[in-house]
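Progress note, project year one: complex with fructose -6-phosphate.
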Amino acid sequence: MCGIIGYVGKRDAYPILIKGLHRLEYRGYDSAGVALINEAGKLNVFKAKGKVAELETFATDKDTTGHIGIAHTRWATHGEPNTANAHPHYSASERLAIIHNGIIENYSVLKAGLMQEGYSFKSDTDTEVLVQLIEYTQVDRHVDLRTAVQLALQQVIGAYAIVVLDQEHPDTLIAARKGSPLVVGIGDDEYFLASDATPIVEYTDKVIYIEDEEVVTISNDREVEIVTIGNVQKPPEIQRLEMSLSQLEKGGYPHFMLKEIFEQPRTLTDSMRGRINLRQDNISLSGFIDNRERFINAKRIIITACGTSWHAGLIAMYAIEEFARIPVEVEYSSEFRYRRPVIDKDDVVIAISQSGETADTLAAIQLAKERGAFIFAICNVVGASIPRVSHSGCYTHAGPEIGVASTKAFTAQVVALTMLALCIGKEKGTLSPDKYFAIVRELGQIPDKIERVLGQNKRIAEFAKMFMYAQSFIYLGRGYNFPVALEGALKLKEISYIHAEGYPAAEMKHGPIALISREMPVVVVAPQCGTYEKVVSNIQEIKARKGRVIAIVTEGDDLISKIADFVIEVPRTEECLTPLLTVIPLQLIAYHIAVVKDCDVDQPRNLAKSVTVE
Ligand code: F6R
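Model obtained:
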């Protein structure tokens, strides 16, 4: 979703801003723009619909000089994706320019008020309303820019991360946030502002995460100053980034998504490092140890998440109920937050998010916190909003995920949640020591086993070509592999734009079986565990109706090999760990189909990596 970058310092701002926009492209966007104050003190704004490259082409013959500037990638919310709606937006006098990530919910009321004062608007955006309101406040109340920003934001309902540039103060950027992320990077005599650390990491590892309702002033000859919108001073808290530049490069792969799929043996090792002691067959998870009583006495666990993270949550439901015998409910954050859920103070709420910024999940946490529940976050991005507002948690340590379609973050979430389920079960005494040790030992084998699945990549790429013209797919699975079926279908939809549905295999005869034909491939996730025989019967039912079956099976399975049209083998493992292996071929199938269809794999249309608005 929208990306923000700002710079003030001694270097030319434009190349830094453009590079920053490229780094933010992964978040998803449909237009881009930049504002700079040149040596003569003029504030110039350039914008273009489409990719950052189009903005660069447009700006080739323009005055892009200046040592201070702001830039933005916009993901349309109010108003279609066109140049007029792209950010930055000028104020009426063109003295100010603003970039904004979020939604101003009461923008129409504010706009009507400004129109009565004689203001007119060049775009359909809520953002332009905000910059006009700031300028109006500045003029009407005779206050400085920071005070005008504070007063204007006091009137705003909604979410925002904003940066304002003022022609009259060509050495200062004023920024603020509520609900949308914003981070300040501190270099030598220079400062950066961004939606996340990816555009900052090559310049500095010193950052300050801005909190909700804080307004920050950065200027190259002064210390960072933070006040709340109610004007309470806040001491800046400088933190070290744990990210490296090489993590943000493709490293020889054609796409980030493929790189991230292939990184999984290493990312899962990182997720387990320092937590699993394979010599003692033991897991030590500090977030669990510190809150042991909350977990083992929990009457119920509510898991809240969106998209792929929600699928990881479903797998965790199977594991927690099996090992810890605690009832688990898995909720879409967007539904949970609005349906007046019954939440008790003895409930443990596990919020799962790769980005740690998903607006619906943040709101779900807020609600559960207000009702007294204990909030435990499973998150990938260190320092993001979700871990900061939660009581405790566990980072997945998968490293930056740039491809919009989540892959390595998903498997890292499943590993973190499985470790948590094992810890609760062991401490409650509901999981036998033998079973606990067997699974812990097996977790240590998973990275090597994923490596073996990845060894089939070339074969999967070949067969994927056969399916590029399919209009629709069904994915089936049962038990721990039902969420894997959902995840496989989501991956295909997202990046290849082919319709796909995931179903519990046994539900097929209650409806989807009507769709079976030669034209619609059916992917069946069928490792040899749990309800294996029943899934074999489901495959027979599909074949009896001339359906084409792609089956994900356990190595050496010669029963399904005889009936399915195409088989991909995964190594044998503990049932609860099968998703970590069976999901790999599904990620590769989606990837290769998207590549042969010539789709934009890393930045699929309409999608955003970090969904910071509702
Ligand atoms: C799918 C995908 C999305 C995210 C969802 C939640 O590949 O990436 O469905 O899983 O938007 O995002 P996070 O995990 O950042 O809260």
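The domain at 455-600 is CATH 3.40.50.10490 (Rossmann fold).
The mean pLDDT is 95.
No further modelling is planned for this target in the current period.
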